[in-house]
Specification:
The structure is a single chain. With about 140 residues, this protein is of the alpha+beta class. It has a six-stranded mixed β-sheet with strand order 1-3-6-5-4-2. It starts with 5 loop residues before the first strand and ends in a 9-residue tail after the last helix. The protein has helices at about 85-110, 120-130; strands spanning about 5-10, 15-20, 35-40, 50-55, 65-70, 75-80. It contains two helices and six strands; from the N terminus they run ββββββαα.
Amino acid sequence: MSSLQVYIRHPEEIPIELEQLNRPLPTSHSTQGLGLICHSHNMINEGSAVELRVPFVEPSITVSGIVNWCRNNGPGFELGIDFDNPDATMRMRMLEQLCQIHQYRLDMREEQGRTLSPDDAAMEWIQRYAALFPNDGV
């Protein structure tokens, strides 16, 4: 793993579906510098190929990656997933931006009592945070 690896933390409040694959993914010797941290109810061994998706995103976006690390985190496990091809990295980044916008919409309703449409939430989030994304991760 590159020392410049950046991880995006998936919002805990947004469900993510993880499926351990029985087939290996093609691997390369370098990652794309962008990974994902997410919660799993199950331990998944380092080096395992996984497929992830977020149920609320339609049409469905599915991304495959490789578990770089798995740490016991109280009730469940925290996974660091790497993506070693540009297409998977781009798909994961796009998926996580949608999750961050959705979480922003929920936060605005809870914290400020503002009900934003998905488009309005996207516009506000982009103006406020897109330039920082994903560097505001872990």
